[in-house]
Amino acid sequence: VRSGWRSVIDCIVKLHHLHLLPSKVTDMEEVRNILKHSNARSFNKKEETSILQSVSNFLSFDSGKSKPEVKTPEEEEAEKRITTYIESCHIEEIFTESKFLEAESLEYLVSALIWSAGETPKGIANSEEEEERALLCLDLLISTTIRNRDRIELTWAKTFEHLKSIIDSATLLSPLVEKGVFGLLRICQRLVPYKDDMADDLLRSLQLILKLDAKVADILAAQLFSELLHLVKASPDRIQTEACWKTFSALLRVGAHHLEASPAGFEILEILIAGNEVTEENLVSFLEADLAFIEGHAGSEDQSMKALDLLMSLVEKIKAWPTSDKIFGYWSKAVNVARHACNDSRPQVRNQACVMLQQVLLSSYSMNHTEEQWGEVMKEVVLATVNGLVTNVKKHREHEYPEMDKTARIALLMLSKAFLQFLPSLVKLECFSEIWLETLSILDLCNSCSSDELSEAVPEALKNMILVMATQGVLHPGWTDSEGVNLWNVTWQRARTTSPNLEPGMLSDYNIEYAK
Length: 516
Fold this sequence. Notes:
Elements: H1 5-17, H2 23-26, H3 29-35, H4 51-60, H5 73-88, H6 93-96, H7 103-117, H8 128-147, H9 152-167, H10 175-191, H11 199-204, H12 207-210, H13 214-234, H14 242-255, H15 262-275, H16 283-295, H17 301-319, H18 327-341, H19 347-363, H20 371-394, H21 404-426, H22 432-448, H23 452-471, H24 487-498, H25 506-509
Helix pairs in contact: 1-7, 1-8, 3-8, 3-10, 7-8, 7-9, 8-9, 8-10, 9-10, 10-13, 13-15, 14-16, 15-16, 15-17, 16-17, 16-18, 17-18, 17-19, 18-19, 18-20, 19-21, 20-21, 20-22, 21-23, 22-23, 22-24
Protein name: GBF1-like tetratricopeptide repeats domain-containing protein
Domain GBF1-like tetratricopeptide repeats: 329-502
InterPro entries: ARM-type_fold (IPR016024), GBF1-like_TPR (IPR056604)
């Protein structure tokens, strides 16, 4: 059978419309798994007619309504025979046994189902009858596609285009749009684990979901991410290309901000990071998704904290990469995610982000970054982060950022430790004096804040930096910048404004000698 499939499908559609289609046809496993997800509206049942009347309508192609009638025993017997006859045709075997069709016949069957479904742009049909027809044909198309997984290359292109015509840019939730979305996911669930050569094409098709209108996506999100989780659990290692990683990252970023979808979305991210090697192709996708869950208020604070832990694990994986010219750039992207999280409005998340940023910076000094790169980290990450946090304290933005002074204190400790950790590299830079003066300016800003947290922390932080710099011979009376400014004098002048106990004589208390 080739072009004749159109007539066959038309008959099946007509039988379905007249309630004569055996339940076995729509009770196939693939169809049941799609039908169970229905969240969209359901239609009122039509006024029932007798089977004899339905047969009469079928033969005359008349779908008009008829009044209920009292059936005679002869008519009841005739109805039983008709039902038995239709069931004996085993219509369901057209689809359950379609894997035995010749390739050309299978392609014609798929085309006939799509043709018979009619055009429903954005999943909207012109009438209830048209929608019922489109729904049935979509069910049968998905079932046929799944049952012919070993010949997916024959069916997928046409099936995808049909799904695209339904889902792409859908602005209203209809039963057809809903069935299209979950039908697409069902195909991926059933085929991706077994079709290495088609896995990429199948997974990239999930981009269609991203084109749904935001309101439609919001309604479907909870069930959608539950199905995505099922897919990822079965095939955690099937995402291979950068395009697929970007697709999943985009989906996860949507889920991170949905109250009901967020837990499943985060579990997906955990599975993917744990089950895959972190590479140049997927790192940015992981970082973008992880940041969404760190920031996402849809999930709990505990989930945001776990997302920070995932970030730390990503950094550890980057540190294990072979040395290359690119590694600093990728490492910096991860560091900037942590830096961004330091501005979260929730104190617990913000404080943990600062602690983690410090851990990342200090534990990464063994990486073979250049002096210039460590200087960039000091200026663009450490100093910029602390300056931003302290500025918020200065502006009294407690209503936006509660407990910001505590966060600023944690960040100040990070500044002190990072400065001393990086010092061997920083002193080799021409801009080292600028870095030091900027550090002193931030400490001055801390002193100007009406905060007990900071006023207690600044003197200790500055003292530690001065002692180490003096011990290593960096801070001495002859130290000047490129313009001849004596940095020894500047340092002590600024130190005295912080605490009267910070003066050159204290160095002798620690047995530190310097050239006078």
